[in-house]
Design goal:
Length: 566
Amino acid sequence: MKKKIFYAIFLGIFSVQILSMLSIIFMLDNVIKNLAFSRLNHALSELTSQDIANILLHKDSIIPLTYRLSLISTQGEVLYDSQADINKLDNHLSRQEVQTLLKDFNKSKSESVRVQRESSTLNEQTLYVANMTIIESTPIIARLSEQKRAIGVLLVDLLPYLCALLFFGFILSIVLALILSKKIITPIQNIDLSHPVRTNPYPELQVFMERIAKQKKKIKKQVALIQARQRENEVIIQSMHGGFLLINNQTQIRSCNHTALEYLHITAQDSLFKIPHLKPLINELERISKEPAEQANEQDYSFECEIQERNLYFIALPAWVKNQLQAIALIIFDKTTQKQAQDFRKEFSANVTHELKTPLSIILASSEMLKSGLVKTEDRAEFVNKIYTESQRLLTLIDKILRLSFFDENSLELEKTPLDLLEILRRVSKNVAPLALEKHIKIVISPQTREGKIWGISSLIEDMVYNLIENAIKYSHDNSTITLSITHSGQNIIMSVKDEGIGIPKNEQERVFERFYCVDKSHSKKLGGSGLGLSIVKHIAKIHNAKIRLVSQVGIGTTISVEFRG
């Protein structure tokens, strides 16, 4: 708009300057012509009849040489000419000034006549003034003439001055156009669009400002509606159970929820192509983008990817516009827990089958050998003892499996009662004393131990303590010490079992509470370990809302603590 106003003002001012100059030139030409006519008329008026008679008689003009005097008869014959040979001049009867004077003479008029004629060859104008004079009863036409340059010649002579004036006029026009356009535009630029009608500087814009005000109110309502819908959509997206991700055809994120960002380990400003760990996802998206648009619009896509140790299930909804992929909406579900549970069930089934099969195979083989009489009399007691030991081991294993299944069902409805944790430690340590004596292990209660009163299920707490001490005995070195302690942390009570055993590697400490998991399987087999003891401890702690902490160093020992809420 500013440019248009500038050019309009500039062209207007510059055009006026050019037109003014041309007008002045034409007016100047007209003034020069009128002055010339006045001079000729004055000179002619001073020419008396006696002067004309003398000229005709003596052929001697008293008229200045700048003028040309011609004396013409009423028949058009040139009687005298001050600047030309009359014998070479043609008849002047047809000349305009002659015809006009003859007509006026017949009408008894005696006014002088002015005539202007141009010469196209000489590019000059000739001005004529003529009147009728009576010489001795004979009418004679006296005519004075003067040469005047044509306006074109005048323009050529004035051209350098005109160019200079046009140049300065051009500069002046630019300066004035800049000043005026700025002066016009500045009030418009300073209009407060919050109150366009009130701050309108020009009445001519009033209708336009009123429309802006109405449109502003309409836009404000629409923006508020859009924002409300955006907030509603944002709440819905953020409240989704799974992740939501909307990406454009450049894999830039346009919309997402926190769940999707957490699943993919990214931020909302990331471009998916630039993140190495998303390569499996990018490969799937590229496969979708290469599908024909007609086929892609008729189906949805689903696939699984493992990203940062998460098993994610994706539902992809591509959006095609004019056969061009514009965006892809991704709905993401975390299947990690389900997959882990599935893998755990497979592993658990395999472990249960293996753990049950081993003692059963020993019992069956020993029984068949006894039945077939293949065992010597002196060896029969050893085989019977082996059958008894494996049967006990089998019963213990079945009992632990049943306990874990019982915990998994969450059907435990036993009532919790106040328990003396120190008393339970003393009682259980006496029960496992025979196992400790076999390895010459001492079980001691720390001198700093204080009484600990908790609410719990007595049988389960005793089972927990038994499994912890039994596990410590199995993995402790001979002639070592197991220390039991009870400490307080605020209102909470912490029970700890510390051994001086083989220890647990750092990378396996998180798995020791899994079912059938053993750090050293060969060592566990020798000791009769099933890998279920610590898993039972974890479930009992969960029932009592207790936390388990494990601190261990290979070759130094392990401390397992259970913290009960006060």
